[in-house]
Write a structure and sequence with these properties.
The structure holds two protein chains of two kinds. Chain A is an alpha+beta fold. Helix content of chain A is about 50%, strand content about 10%. In chain A, a hairpin with a 5-residue loop joins strand 2 and strand 3 (about 180-185). In chain A, helix 12 (about 395-405) runs antiparallel to helix 13 (about 410-440). By secondary structure, chain B is α/β, with parallel strands linked by helices. In chain B, the strands form three sheets. In chain B, strands 1, 2, 3, 6, 11 and 12 form a six-stranded mixed β-sheet that branches. A four-stranded mixed β-sheet of chain B has the order 8-9-7-10. In chain B, strands 4-5 form a two-stranded antiparallel sheet. In chain B, helix 9 packs across helix 11 (about 220-235), helix 9 (about 190-205) packs across helix 20 and helix 20 (about 395-405) runs antiparallel to helix 21. Chain B is globular, with a radius of gyration of 23 Å. Classes of the chains: A alpha+beta, B alpha/beta.
Chain lengths: ~450, ~425
Amino acid sequence: MATAIQSNRAPRNKTGRAVVLFLKVSAFLGPALILLGALLVYPIIFTGVRSTFDASGNNFVGLANYEQIFTQPRTLIAVRNNLIWVLVVPVIITSLGLVFAVLSNRLPWRSAFRMAIFLPLVVSGLAAGVTFRFLFAASPEVGTANAMARALVHIFQPPGEYPTARASREAPLEALEGGGFRTTTTVTAGDTLHLGLVGVQAGNLPAEVASAESPVPAPGTVQGVVWLDFSPGGTVGQVDAAEMGMPDVPVQLLDGDKVVGRTVTDAAGRFSFDVQAGAQHRVQLAASAFRAPFPGIAWLGPTFITISIMIGYIWMQTGFAVVIIGAGLSGLDPQLQEAARTDGANELQVFRHVTVPVLMPILMVVMVTTVINVLKIFDLVFIIAPESMQPHANVLALEMWRASFGGARDFGLGSALAMLLLIMIIPAMLFNIRNFRRDG
Amino acid sequence: MKSLFRVVLAALLIGGAVSAQQSWPDLSGQSVRVAGVWSGDEQAAFTAVLNEFATLTGATVEFFSTGNDIATVVGTQLEGGSPPDVAMLPQPGLLVEFANRGALVNIEDSVGDLVDANYAQAWRDLGSVNGDLYGVWFKAANKSLLWYNADILAAAGVEPPTTWDEFVEAAQTVFDFGVTPISVAGGDGWTLTDWFENVYLRSAGADMYDQLTNHEIAWTDASVKEALGYLAQIWRHEWLANGLQGTLEAGFPVGTVQPFLDNPTAAFVYGADFSAGVIASDTNAELGTTARFVAFPSVAGSGPAVVGGGDVAVQFTNNEAATQLMRFLATPEAAEVWAALGGFTSPNQGVDVSVYPDEVLQQSATALQQAEVFRFDMSDLQPAAFGGTSGQGMWGLLVEFLQSHDVDGVAFQLESEASAAFQ
């Protein structure tokens, strides 16, 4: 009678147990699998299929979109830029992270230091982008980077008194390569020189300036005047009534290429040289008076725009590397390093031969994670590059957005770009997963 | 009692008939989301217009700025199924695109009466696609003004130029005087397209302008290259305020104020009537005294011509609040709110001209009405991929032209991108 009652809930046979196991597994894993399928697997497959159709989605075009990526200059630049990003940035971030982590390990205020380096990571990409956009602005009045560069350059090459000056149309002057002007004609004793310059506002002349006067020839000397040859209604090449002289211009007398006399123009712009009869000379206005203020580096110009954005990104992301490597460092057995030191190794050798090899797995993880992050870069490029430079700074994620949702609405091309990005990321991802598996 | 009641009723009716303005329904609890390209002062002014609507109806109105990329931002929201209720589009080409996609509400029945009452036929046509009315033109712009700093020109002894040759000569004289003459907002590609359109309308004439707009002639046509050649004459790198790099980083607000700063870096800047708003709020220069404008110079003897622009309100969602807002925007009252604040001209014929706060706007509004030749901004009439997206098409290629001055190369690229967009 008792045997008819089932005292144990679990089914007796193998199939029953397998079914129950399957149900338990699905109950726990199911929701996650459904989410993964809906949000990851299905979109990937759909995008892959969509990339083989054209912009409207109705015509099958096979690999034409991919062909377009590699033939159209705009997308080709995006691919090229992404490759530059991948080759340069992860290496720099990992190296900097390693150096900072190792150096800060010895400090009593190590945590504070690491927190300070980590702080940029919590700033939004938008805020960081706007900050760097202003930092790198071309005008030294706005951009900190160029303000510093200008201050530095001006120590060695201070700007001249008349940086905007140019030779007037009638002046017998030619501009020299390194700045300054030289007369195109030669003069001898008793000649006069009218060296008219334009491009300087009369209001910007020094305080002691006086009205310009035409030089009077004197025997045995060369007389000249350097003056601002511009007045409304005046004649170019002639010293008109309202025109002012240009004082403090260094003038040099040349014999061939050798400087044989130096002087400076007076308040009315006049100068004179004593010369020997018969000798032919040229006169030169020294470059130092006309040196332009350092214009700054075109950080946001076509050449440097990608580098500037990279600097912004490295500033943001180095903290991540420092913290991860720092954690790895604290897991490092100090006895290894002690043993190396007692064997006579100096700090650098300890670093090269003990620390780095032991940390290598962590370094690889940091490097590969950064590669994945860098391939997806979007916000910094969008914000920091001015509209005129967007084509030069273009990256795949940005191009994907523009192609899909911009004027062209080409979802086929956008999908192809997305697939390309996926293909580029997969090796890095597999590498990371393999590392995790090995460690676990 | 009965007679008193009748008198009161009659009085009310007469009173109602006398003040027969729009009566607005009560929309409290409903909200409207409006998208537009405006930011800064223009955004503040348009928000004032929307607040007037909120006061009249009790609805909640929210404005969000999309920046220049309105095609992309609204397009994305449309794809996602949550477009704004109303959008202020700066390009008729975009209106046509959205209408052809079936995204817009046909407003013939809901707003058609107000449009017929207050707008000229030309503006109604610009708001229609294949005869169906979709848009109400709220803001019009005279984009053929050359602004200059009168003090600098006077000091340099230069008269404001009326012809292109005078313009180039004036620039050279100002440069000799010691000021870089030209400010170009190279950071915003659309300002460069406006330069081009003004030159082209004058050098090639209105008929060719229309042909190029509809891509009936190629961008490699000799007339286009001629216009690009004129631009290269004035866009000399040494003449640009703050140098080439500074110009490339200067967006519209920055580029517009360069001649009017306390230390001006330029003498001329090409602009529109809405430049006045930026100049007034961002500089100390006095409009009409220091900051003046002339009509864009004629080229090769062309007559007065105006390239105009505007913003059209379109409706994406078919609900009561959005419809009432569209009706409000078609009334002169809505336009007058912004008109009083400056930097705004309305194509609405019901607007009282004396509402415009200064001579500048009255002048430009008059010019808008009196132009022998009036054409809508060409880049705004193009498919958005070619005429309205940053970094590509007309916008991107003219920025490249500013740097390279390569007439043949840029014309060729313009043609290839135009062909792709017009397919």
